[in-house]
Here is the input.
Amino acid sequence: WCPCCAVYQQRMQLLDLTGEPYVCCAGLCPCGPLEEPQDRKCMILEACCCTSLALSGNRFMVQTRFDKQNTACDDCILWTVCLLDCFVAIASCLIEIPAEVRLCVDCLNMITMGC
Here is the structure.
């Protein structure tokens, strides 16, 4: 399983279903050239270089185009993982964080990404 390939394939399916042109990160970052439709080949770069943001864009597309909303449990899981990731990133600027802690946070991110 490759997260980049999964994100790319999911976006292709979403664009085919909705008939929309490709916009970087599904329009989550509407500034400059990112808000304009681009060639679908750019999706490869987005999926490989910004996998998490691309996945967030796919989630945004599903929620806005197909009227799906997060449950309270979804929100709790997403916020917990996000805050934990931010905490570890900030703490690593101040102190040495063990590799095991970083790996655990990465695993939580990957598990969440799969949902």
About this structure: The chain has five helices and no strands. Helices lie at 3-18, 42-49, 51-65, 72-94, 99-113.
